[in-house]
Design brief:
about 260 residues; 4-stranded antiparallel β-sheet; 3 helices; 15 strands; about 35% strand
């Protein structure tokens, strides 16, 4: 099993769709792993560190994977939140505050994220954002995507861009989901460990802007529709053609219930 782990912190990798476009290259889309499994998040309440893991081996091994990364930066108070055949999500304030965060579980990534955001706000968090959201059904080769964030501005996105888009890259595909309410997510389904990104998005008259909320990245550029199934995106780092896709194999899970281990 390939471990997928993520550090929760706003001083990490800065990645945007503009950067993704700069290194695009044609390649086949890998098939998703089948079946369900375990997912876990380990969070240190006193520090800004957390780890996520998922897989179909054993619940103990998935829990241990999340815990190992949480403790790798010196944290000694990591708590493990694990689920079976379900999703678990972690939400925290945009600017770190010790002991303020929320964890949620659910049959879908969106459901787990919604609960995590509510718990973060209940704990006193301000401007909480989802930072991790693994599901037991996620492909173990890739980092788990993030759900679309709440908010945004309805009507701020050209209807032609709304939907799910794929960019062929070396070894797989990047997936860009654009919502009608002015939010977006980008995640990788290629073996490049690219961290998922989510934020707000606007587009009209051939120009777009995006503002990530889970990392420090703002971007803007132009777009040219090529019929209804492709769009050429141009930014200062390069150009790339995204193709409309109808389904994303990484999304989806079933079940519910969360176990907390201290």
């Amino acid at each position: 099993m390939r471990r997928t782990i993520a550090a929760v912190g706003w001083t990490g990798v800065r990645v945007g769709a503009g950067f993704l476009l700069a290194v695009a290259a044609m390649s086949p889309w890998p098939a998703a792993a089948q079946g369900f499994g375990y997912a876990a998040i380990a969070k240190s309440p006193s520090t800004n560190w957390a780890g996520a893991e998922k897989g179909t081996t054993t619940e103990a091994s998935v829990d241990a994977g999340a815990l190992q990364y949480c403790q790798s930066k010196g944290a000694r108070d990591c708590k493990i939140y694990s689920v079976v055949d379900s999703c678990v999500a972690l939400a925290a304030p945009a600017y770190f505050v010790p002991n303020i965060y929320g964890v949620g579980s659910g049959a879908t990534r969106e459901g787990a994220a919604s609960q995590a955001l509510a718990e973060c706000t209940k704990a006193g968090g301000v401007n909480c954002v989802v930072t991790l959201a693994p599901c037991g059904s996620d492909d173990v080769r890739f980092q788990s995507p993030l759900p679309l964030p709440p908010g945004g501005k309805p009507g701020s996105v050209d209807p032609a861009l709304v939907g799910l888009w794929g960019l062929n890259v070396n070894g797989g595909i990047w997936v860009w989901q654009i919502s009608v309410n002015g939010t977006y997510t980008v995640h990788s389904e290629a073996p490049d460990n690219l961290p998922p990104q989510t934020g707000t998005f606007t587009a009209s008259n051939g120009k777009y802007t995006q503002d990530a909320i889970n990392t420090q990245w703002d971007d803007q550029g132009t777009y040219t529709m090529q019929g209804t199934t492709a769009v050429l995106i141009s930014v200062k780092l390069g150009k790339g053609t995204w193709y409309r896709i109808t389904a994303d194999p990484v999304y989806g899970a079933s079940g519910s219930g969360i176990t907390i281990r201290r």
